[in-house]
Design brief:
With about 350 residues, the chain is an alpha/beta fold. It is built from 10 helices and 11 strands.
Length: about 350
């Protein structure tokens, strides 16, 4: 099955009024020719895998625009020259200010200037956040942007935020993350009444650190469909439509899930191929195993939206393959088509007033 043939599978009897929602990023639904600025030098496998992924996405009617050094082989895609590179080890704010002509900053600036509709980078996450704050700027009323990642739970798509934008956060930040996540789930995932939970070390309201205890109090008093705490072991089982946490916790959880899923799938393949009997049985389970891989593989979803900015920004995994990059570009294109930024800008002020405590 090709990258563009994947299907979203929401089992019958799934939670609440769950709609069709965002498909895995390999599915393209009647997109226009969204112009997506792609940081060709961001990520562990740049530039080769980034360019290859952009070319895959271009087959689906999108218009990737590569940002990188002169002479970069683009396979026919448009190249905007950006001679500098922000490395993973560099301090984000300093690097963004010191390297305005880097591929990452130039790609963000293209969205701010209207030369692109969205930006995708697998580079330095902190630098993407810093460049977004400087050039794209926050939606009025947003305290802090948050990375929103769709988790492929057994009950359908589940949104986790913050997945890494804010290592330190206050309770009021988590309250606003919840508001943004609720809007995203309702307007983009098409879930009529999203269920929201707070990630903690126990389901009981009195469990957690100071941050989760204070956030629980605020969320319980807000009109956001808050259903209490959840634990990380329930995330893949479909803990809630929206799960909220600080970025430090969210990033650890996300990487643990990705690593566990990848290791499990690889080990399963190794065990199946280890013996003749296993290989024979593998032929019988191959369709089911392939569907499972397509649903759980992190490359299927490409990355996450950086919510709360005036421009659409998608952060891809640092170790992204060409398939992951292609799906990140498709994710950006779908965000443009569904006007993620416009929905948040229009609805968040109303939601903020409704959640005032």
């Amino acid at each position: 099955m090709g990258d563009s043939d994947l299907e979203s599978r929401v089992p019958s009897g799934a939670r609440g009024d769950r709609g069709a929602g965002l498909r895995p990023a390999g599915v393209v639904a009647a997109q226009g020719r969204a112009r997506v600025a792609v940081d060709a030098m961001g990520g562990d496998r740049a530039p080769d895998e980034i360019v290859a992924g952009a070319l895959l996405a271009a087959r689906d009617g999108l218009t990737p625009i590569l940002f990188g050094p002169a002479g970069l082989e683009t396979g026919g895609l448009e190249l905007v020259e950006a001679p500098d590179v922000i490395e993973m080890h560099e301090k984000p704010s300093e690097a963004v200010r010191a390297k305005p002509d880097s591929s990452l900053v130039a790609a963000c600036r293209a969205v701010a200037d209207g030369r692109a509709d969205a930006v995708v980078s697998a580079g330095n996450t902190g630098a993407m956040l810093a460049a977004g704050l400087i050039h794209l700027r926050r939606i009025p009323g947003v305290l802090r942007p948050a990375i929103a990642v769709v988790i492929p739970s057994s009950k359908g798509p589940s949104l986790l935020l913050d997945a890494g934008a804010n290592a330190d956060a206050r309770a009021e930040h988590l309250l606003q993350f919840a508001a943004m996540g609720s809007i995203f789930a309702r307007e983009l995932l098409e879930i009529a009444s999203p269920e929201l939970r707070l990630l903690s070390i126990g389901e009981e309201p009195e469990k957690g650190n100071r941050l989760t205890l204070e956030a629980h109090t605020l969320l319980a008093a807000a009109d956001l469909g808050f259903a209490g705490n959840t634990e990380s072991r329930d995330l893949l089982a479909g803990a809630a439509d929206v799960v909220v946490c600080d970025g430090f916790t969210g990033n650890i959880v996300l990487k643990l899930l990705e690593g566990a899923i990848s290791t499990l799938l690889d080990d399963l393949r190794t065990e199946i191929e280890a013996t003749p009997r296993g290989r024979l049985g593998g032929l019988l389970v191959r369709p089911a195993a392939q569907r499972l891989r397509e649903r759980l593989d992190p490359d299927t979803y490409g990355g996450g939206y950086l919510l709360g900015l005036r421009g659409l920004s998608v952060i891809a995994h640092g170790n992204s393959s060409r398939r992951a990059i292609a799906n990140a570009v498709r994710l950006a294109g779908r965000g443009v088509d569904r006007d993620v930024v416009g929905h948040l800008a229009a609805l968040l002020p109303k939601r903020r007033s409704a959640t005032a405590v």
